[in-house]
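Side project, low priority. Logging it here so it doesn't get lost.
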Amino acid sequence: MGAKRSGKKVSDASSALKGVYLPHWTYDTYTITDYSGERGDYYYTTETYTETVDGKSQTRTRQVRHTDWSYASGRVECDFRDLMVPASNSLPEKTLTKLGPWNFNMLVKFDERYMSGFRSETYQLGPEQGFTKAAEQTVGAINSAIRDDIGGDEQRIDSTDTQYFDKAIKYLMLPVWVSAYNYNNKIYQFTVNASTGEVIGQRPVSVIKIILAVLLVITLIIIGVILYQNAHPA
């Protein structure tokens, strides 16, 4: 890949793009969650207060909001499809997550011919461990369903008990392109989703440019304050 010369040297030893099939698990499951919590409903009262205006004391009123909390419990059911969990440790989990979403409509049955030109990895995260991570992905949606079920203006969730049913698992090999380059004696890696073209990578950061940007913002704020003071003299 080309680079403009800027006093920093980009190594000619940059690695070429390498195709890799990375293992992933996807899970389907149906959940039933029993919960207990509290429902908060707003109500308002009128409050009288006194304030000083132009040296004179005046009595006024205002509406004050309160929350009436009541016990709530119930059961919610949720259906989850294609909860994806990377099963490789070759790339940071954050990078693998950002590479998504993947186009599952392009999935095909395994055929060795698709592996041509790519290397492949076996899973480093077992299916049971993978399901534990998949279950963590369900928490937000389940809590949202609970809050909807409780209703009211505010909700508190005190306890939950979730059971997972109809579990299904698929083992996927998803293609990525991986490369790296040496800039100013530091290695920067980038990864490309070979299905969607999504690019995730690192790039050099100029400390001088960051400092100049911060100083520019501070200068603009100072100018804005001065202009405001000139337009609104005391």
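Brief comment: DSSP finds three helices and six strands in the chain.
Revisit when time allows.
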